[in-house]
Write a structure and sequence with these properties.
The protein is of the alpha+beta class. About 50% of the residues lie in helices and about 20% in strands. Among the domains are: about 215-315, Beta-Lactamase (2-Layer Sandwich), CATH 3.30.450; about 375-430, no CATH class; about 445-550, 2-Layer Sandwich (Beta-Lactamase), CATH 3.30.450.20; about 560-715, Reverse transcriptase/Diguanylate cyclase domain (Alpha-Beta Plaits), CATH 3.30.70. The longest helix is centred in the N-terminal third of the chain and has 67 residues, at about 20-85.
C-alpha cells in the first residue's frame, strides 16, 4: 500500500470509529437508501427489458403479416399464370403467333388480342409475353422494343425476363425473377414465367411483367410503426451489394436510383436487411442504413429473394421510459433528503449520552484508576442502564484479572510443552518423507507408468517407460500415446479403450507397442481416469507390465509348428471373438475352408517331406494373398481355414477364387502344379455358434470336391 493511501484509510477509519453518530448515519444509508436505489434501478432495467421485448415481438408479428401478404400476392399471380397457360385459347393463340413469327411477323398485328387484353386489364399487370422455346418474343401486349427480340441477344440476355424464361424452360415450372432494371420498359420490373404444354410437349413460355407499384402498395405502408417507423427491403446484386428493392421513407428515390444499403455484404453483415437477404429471420436492437439505432425485425422472402425489415427508431420507443426515469429520479431525490433529515434528528438524542459514557471510560483508562470506583451516568433510558451494567462489569473484571494472570502462566507452560511435541513430530515427518521419496524413485525406475490430460496429451512418464521404449522424457511429454502405437494393433481396440475411460471407467488389456528403434514389446496395461474435487475428469493415469516373454510363449502356442500360421486351437478362439463382435456391432463375417486336392498322392509318390513342403508353400500363398485383417490358419491335415471379418459371401467368394487361381498357377517344388478346392459360407443372424458357419463351409467344400475339385462353392 502506498503512503498516501495508508494515510487516507487511517483518516476514514478514525472518522468512522470515533463518532457513533457517523456510524449510525452510515448504517441508515446502507439499510434504507441503498436498497431504495437498487430497487429503482432494477425496476427501470426490467421496464426497459419489457419494452424492448414487446417492441421486437410487435415488429416480428407485423413483418410476418407483410411477408405473408407479399408471398400470397406472388403465389396468386403464379397460380393464375399456371391456369392461363393450360387454357385452350392460350395454346391456340400461341401456335398462331409462333407460326406467323416464323413466316410473316406482320400477320401478328392482325390477330385479335382481346383475350390477352382482358387478362392484362383484369389483373392490372404491366405487360404479357409469349416466348417460343428458342427465346424469341413472339407477342408483347405493350409492343415495346423487346417485341420479336431474342432473349439470348445482347440487349435482353441479362434481363429478369431472360432469367425467368431460362428457369421456367429448364425446370418446367412457374418461376419468378427478382426486381431489376428492364431497358425496354425503362423501369425496374419482375417477371413470372410459366411453361405452356400441348400433350406433354413444351410449346413455349407465357410471362407476366409485374407492376412494381402494385407490389409496393402491399409493402410500403407504415401504419402502426409510429413517427420514425419504416419498411426496408433489399436484394443481393452480382457484386454482393445489398440494393434497395422498394422506395424508402427517408430515401424516396431509393428504388429508382438502386440505392446501395450495404456494400460488400459478404464481409460486412451488420445490417438487419443484410441478415435477411442471406436467409436470416429474427429481431433485435441494431443500426439501419442511416447509422441510427433502431428496433428491427427481419425476414427472408424466398419467392422474390428479398430481405425485408420492419423497424422503429430506438429513441422513439424508449421516450416514455426516459420520461418516467426522470420523474422517478426527482421523487427519489426528495425521499433521500427526507430520510437523512430524520436520521440527523434521531441520532442527536441517542449519541450525546453515549459520548459522555465514552469520555468517562477514556478518563478511567488514562488515569489507571481502580475499576471498582467508576460512577454511573444518571440517565433514565437505555444508556443509563448501559452505564450501570458497565460499572458492575468493571468490578467483575477486576476480580477476573487475577484469575486470568494465573491461567496465562499455566498456558505458557502448556504451549512450551506442545511446541516440543510438534518439533518431534516434524522430525518424524521428515524421516517419513525421505522414505516416501525413496519408494517413489524405485517406482519411477522399475514401474512403467504415464499420465495424460483429458485430450490424451502425455504430461508425465516414468524412467522405466523411457528405458523400455528408447525415448527420452522430453521426446514423449507433449505427444500423444500414438507415438508408441504398433501398426499391427486393431484400431477398434483403441476406440473401445477411449470410450471406456471417457465414461469414467477403468480399462485393462494387452497392447503391442513400438519402440523408438522400430522393434516392439507387449504390455498388460491398466488405464484409469483422474478426477478433480468436483468429480470431473482432469486426466488419465496408466500402469503397465512388460509381458513380452509371455506373449512370445503364447505366440508359440497358437502357431502351427509346420506352416507357422495359426493352429486350430487359436482359430477356434478367434471364432468366438469374431462371433461376439459381429453380434455386438450388428456386422458380418465369412469363412473360407480350403482342402488340397489329391494330397495323399503327394505323400505316397514323393514322401512326407515333399508333402510338408507343399503345405508350407500353400500356407504362404494363403497368408500373402489375403487382407491383414483376415485370420489364416491350418484347420487339420491338408485343410486350411480363413476367417474374413466384415466380408459378405460375395466378397469372400472373390477372395477364394483369387486364392484358387494363385495356387493353380503356382510352381511347387518337385511336384510342379497343385490345386485346392474351396468352400465359402457367411455368418447368419440365426447362427448361435461358430460351428454352424463351419459346417456350411464344410458342406460347400464337399460339393466342390464332388463337382470335380479345383473350384469354389458358396453355401
Amino acid at each position: 500500500m502506498k503512503p498516501h493511501e495508508y494515510k487516507k484509510e487511517t483518516k476514514m477509519s478514525k472518522w468512522y470509529s470515533l463518532h457513533i453518530k457517523n456510524e449510525i448515519l452510515l448504517w441508515f444509508f446502507v439499510i434504507s437508501i441503498i436498497p431504495l436505489l437498487l430497487i429503482s434501478t432494477l425496476y427501470f432495467i426490467n421496464l426497459t427489458s419489457a419494452f424492448e421485448t414487446h417492441t421486437k415481438r410487435y415488429l416480428s408479428e407485423m413483418l410476418q403479416k407483410k411477408v405473408e401478404s407479399t408471398e400470397n400476392y406472388i403465389d396468386g399471380i403464379k397460380d393464375d399464370l399456371k391456369f392461363i397457360s393450360t387454357i385452350g385459347k392460350t395454346k391456340e393463340l400461341f401456335r398462331e403467333y409462333n407460326e406467323n413469327f416464323a413466316y410473316n411477323k406482320e400477320n401478328n398485328n392482325k390477330i385479335e388480342s382481346l383475350y390477352f387484353d382482358n387478362i392484362i386489364y383484369k389483373r392490372k399487370h404491366y405487360d404479357l409475353f409469349l416466348i417460343n422455346p428458342d427465346g424469341d418474343i413472339i407477342y408483347s401486349h405493350k409492343n415495346e422494343s423487346d417485341l420479336y427480340k431474342n432473349l439470348k441477344g445482347v440487349l435482353l440476355s441479362k434481363s429478369g425476363l431472360a432469367w425467368a424464361f431460362d428457369k421456367s424452360r429448364m425446370l418446367l415450372d412457374t418461376e419468378i425473377s427478382t426486381f431489376s432494371y428492364y431497358a425496354p420498359s425503362k423501369t425496374h420490373a419482375s417477371f413470372i414465367a410459366s411453361p405452356i404444354f400441348d400433350e406433354k410437349k413444351l410449346l413455349g413460355i407465357i410471362a407476366i411483367q409485374i407492376s412494381p407499384q402494385k407490389l409496393f402498395e402491399r409493402i410500403v405502408n407504415y401504419d402502426g410503426l409510429g413517427e420514425s417507423g419504416e419498411i426496408v427491403a433489399g436484394y443481393l446484386d452480382n457484386n454482393s451489394n445489398i440494393i434497395a428493392a422498394i422506395p424508402l421513407k427517408y430515401r424516396p428515390n431509393a428504388f429508382n436510383n438502386q440505392l446501395v444499403l450495404q456494400s460488400n455484404s459478404r464481409e460486412q453483415n451488420n445490417l438487419p436487411v443484410t441478415k435477411a437477404v442471406y436467409g436470416g429471420n429474427g429481431s433485435n436492437i441494431s443500426y439501419d442504413y442511416r447509422g441510427i439505432k433502431i428496433f428491427a425485425a427481419w425476414r427472408y422472402i424466398p419467392s422474390l429473394r428479398w430481405g425485408m425489415v420492419a423497424k422503429i427508431d430506438y429513441e422513439e420507443v424508449m421516450k416514455p421510459i426516459y420520461k418516467q426515469i426522470m420523474i422517478q429520479t426527482i421523487v427519489l431525490f426528495f425521499v433521500i433528503i427526507l430520510i437523512l433529515t430524520a436520521i440527523m434528528i434521531i441520532t442527536k438524542h441517542i449519541v450525546e449520552p453515549i459520548q459522555i459514557l465514552t469520555q468517562k471510560v477514556k478518563n478511567l483508562s488514562s488515569d489507571e484508576k481502580d475499576l471498582t470506583t467508576i460512577d454511573t451516568i444518571d440517565v433514565d433510558n437505555e444508556i443509563g442502564a448501559l452505564s450501570k451494567s458497565f460499572t458492575q462489569m468493571s468490578k467483575s473484571l477486576s476480580e477476573s484479572q487475577k484469575t486470568i494472570r494465573d491461567y496465562a502462566t499455566e498456558l505458557e507452560k502448556k504451549v512450551e510443552l506442545r511446541t516440543q511435541e510438534l518439533k518431534n513430530i516434524q522430525i518424524k515427518l521428515l524421516e517419513a518423507n525421505k522414505k516416501l521419496q525413496k519408494d517413489l524413485n524405485i517406482i519411477d525406475q522399475y514401474v512403467i507408468t504415464s499420465s495424460t490430460d483429458v485430450d490424451g496429451i502425455i504430461t508425465e512418464v516414468s524412467t522405466a517407460l523411457c528405458l523400455i521404449t528408447g525415448y527420452e522424457k522430453a521426446e514423449l511429454i507433449g505427444k500423444r500415446h500414438s507415438i508408441l502405437r504398433h501398426p499391427d494393433m486393431d484400431k477398434k481396440l483403441y476406440i473401445d479403450l477411449w470410450n471406456t475411460i471417457t465414461q469414467g471407467k477403468s480399462w485393462r488389456g494387452e497392447i503391442k507397442n513400438q519402440k523408438k528403434d522400430g522393434s516392439f514389446y507387449w504390455v498388460d496395461v491398466v488405464i484409469a481416469p483422474l478426477f478433480d474435487q468436483n468429480g470431473q475428469i482432469e486426466g488419465y493415469h496408466s500402469i503397465r507390465q512388460n509381458i513380452s516373454d509371455k506373449k512370445y510363449i503364447e505366440e508359440l502356442s497358437i502357431r502351427d509348428q509346420l506352416t507357422q500360421i495359426f493352429n486350430r486351437h487359436h482359430l477356434e478362439s478367434c471364432f468366438k471373438k469374431e462371433l461376439e463382435r459381429t453380434k455386438r456391432y450388428d456386422s458380418t463375417f465369412s469363412v473360407i475352408l480350403a482342402d488340397v486336392d489329391h494330397f495323399k498322392l503327394v505323400n505316397d509318390n514323393y514322401g512326407h517331406d515333399v508333402g510338408d513342403d507343399v503345405l508350407i508353400q500353400i500356407a504362404s500363398l494363403l497368408k500373402h494373398n489375403t487382407r491383414s485383417t483376415d485370420i489364416v490358419g491350418r484347420w487339420g491335415g491338408e485343410e486350411f481355414l480363413i476367417i474374413c471379418p466384415e466380408s459378405t459371401a460375395t466378397d469372400t467368394q472373390a477372395v477364394a477364387e483369387n486364392l484358387r487361381n494363385k495356387i493353380e498357377n503356382f510352381s511347387f517344388n518337385v511336384i510342379g502344379s497343385k490345386s485346392c478346392s474351396f468352400g465359402v459360407s457367411e455368418f447368419k443372424s440365426s447362427d448361435e455358434e461358430y460351428k454352424e458357419v463351419i459346417k456350411r463351409a464344410d458342406n460347400a467344400l464337399y460339393k466342390a470336391k464332388e463337382g470335380g475339385r479345383n473350384r469354389v462353392v458358396v453355401l
